[in-house]
Design a protein that fits this description.
By secondary structure, this protein is α/β, with parallel strands linked by helices. The protein contains 9 helices and 14 strands. A 7-stranded mixed β-sheet has the order 6-5-4-3-2-1-14. The chain has a single domain, classed as Ribonuclease Z/Hydroxyacylglutathione hydrolase-like (Metallo-beta-lactamase, Chain A, 4-Layer Sandwich), CATH 3.60.15.10.
């Protein structure tokens, strides 16, 4: 199994187009202590020929250009991208589907509620005669015909920002089809992809135990990170994300499960781990985690 991190950043990428936080100032200045990141997405393949994207970020065209394995080949129009599995209805994970509108056959996999967000409106540019939608129930396993299977599971999360209602704070952390994780299995091995997660439960740690690799939500280092910086009134929890640090953070809560490779993805532009010389980055590394970056490749 070959895994390519197409983008390791959270919504807005890094540097964020309108941000002058400490991290972004370094990135705008070309400081070697930080590297730019596009928005979160993976590409996976069992044969190095046919690829499945895990989420389609707004930066997808740029990511395809930067990834030789995804370049067109053969016929006049022929892409090695066979499909996209979307894990929630966030704009950051769906918008890239519009990049794939040029008369190219592929399949979109996802929960029913998420797939509904890709119907009608601007998504009508996806030709229904070429683009198929495959609804996958939570807990079900699907075979995309690419040499591996994918099982979905509910991850504690929240609905997309544009669907939030008055009771949103009471709903955060619920386990439903609005936020799912993926378990990819091949040849008796499995790895997990959880780009969004509001809290870590015993059910989740049990599922991740024995994973060959985990790509996990690394949005913020502390829960109040964006509030302290004066950039938002929302904590990580309010945005539907668990922080890296703290007693309930991912470093502490995922210390026990047996996991071969631990990689943080979906990293917000404010997260101090983006600075390679920061004490927070050193702490993450000591805890056995890698900080994902665009172009990172892992062969399992």
């Amino acid at each position: 199994m070959r895994i390519i991190v197409l983008g390791a950043g959270a919504g807005g990428g890094f540097p964020q187009w309108n941000c002058c936080c400490e991290n972004c100032r370094l990135a705008w200045a070309g400081d070697p202590r930080v590297r730019s990141r596009t928005q979160s997405s993976l590409a996976i393949s069992a044969d190095n020929e046919r690829w499945l994207l895990l989420n389609a970020s707004p930066d997808l065209r740029q990511q395809i250009l930067a990834t030789r394995a995804l370049h067109p080949r053969g016929a006049a129009r022929a892409s090695p991208i066979a499909g996209v599995f979307v894990t929630n209805g966030d704009v950051d994970h769906l918008t890239g589907l519009l990049t794939l509108r040029e008369q190219q056959p592929f399949a979109i996999f996802g929960a029913r509620a998420t797939l509904e967000q890709t119907r009608g409106g601007v998504f009508g540019v996806l030709n229904p005669q070429l683009v198929t939608r495959v609804a996958v129930d939570v807990g079900a396993t699907v075979d995309p015909g690419l040499g591996f299977s994918i099982t979905t599971f509910a991850a504690p999360g929240k609905v997309p920002l544009y669907m939030e209602g008055a009771d949103i704070e009471r709903e955060i952390g619920a386990e439903s089809e609005t936020t799912i994780g993926l378990e990819i299995e091949w040849d008796g091995q499995r790895f997990h992809y959880v780009p969004g997660c509001a809290k870590i439960t015993p059910k989740l740690t049990d599922r991740l135990d024995g994973s060959a690799a985990l790509f996990f939500d690394g949005t913020t280092y502390t829960d109040d990170e964006m509030v302290r910086l004066g950039l938002s009134q929302k904590t990580a929890w309010r945005m539907g994300h668990v922080s890296m640090s703290g007693k309930a953070g991912s470093m502490a809560m995922l210390a026990q499960p047996r996991i071969g490779k631990r990689v943080y993805i979906h990293i917000n532009n404010t997260n101090p781990v983006l600075r390679e010389d920061s004490p927070e980055r050193a702490e993450v590394v000591r805890a056995g985690w890698d900080v994902g970056y665009d172009g990172m490749e892992i062969d399992l």
